[in-house]
Amino acid sequence: MTTRSVGVVIAARNAGATIGAAVGSALRCAQVSELVVVSDGSADGTAAAAAGAASGDDRLRVLSLASNVGPAEARNRGMAMLTTDLVAV
């Protein structure tokens, strides 16, 4: 059986209160080799909360967009950062 790498993209806007749980959940999955959180024009510290929830796990990358582009575009930008075989949103 071939093992494939899995990347996860989380698009979030003003999700500072909940993003930590999502990041923690994704990083608990051993199959996840990359996680990209896209803060889509957030004004509440979503990016900082995501980074803090990762506790230094180098699988996480955070992309902060200056303005809201919508969930589809935010996911597309996150997917463009991945180098994995498979993607989960």
Keywords for this structure?
89 residues, 4-stranded parallel β-sheet, globular
Number of strands: 4
Order of helices and strands: EHEHEHE
Give the C-alpha Rg: 12 Å
Weakly predicted, low-confidence segments: none
Give the CA-based shape.
Answer: globular
Q: Spatial order of the strands in the main sheet?
A: 3-2-1-4
Fraction of residues in H or I helices? 25-40%
The DSSP helix count reads 3
Q: Beta-sheet strand percentage?
A: 25-35%
Output mean pLDDT. Answer: 96
Task: Label the structural class.
Answer: alpha/beta
Give the N-to-C terminal Cα separation.
24 Å
Largest sheet: 4 strands, parallel
Task: Write up what this structure looks like.
- It is a single chain.
- By secondary structure, the chain is an alpha/beta fold.
- It contains three helices and four strands.
- Helix 1 runs parallel beside helix 2 (46-53).
- The radius of gyration is 12 Å and the shape is globular.
Topology:
Layout lengths: L5 E7 L6 H9 L4 E9 L5 H8 L6 E6 L5 H11 L4 E3 L1
Parallel strand pairs: 1-2, 1-4, 2-3
Short summary of the structure?
This protein is of the alpha/beta class and about 90 residues long. The protein is built from three helices and four strands.
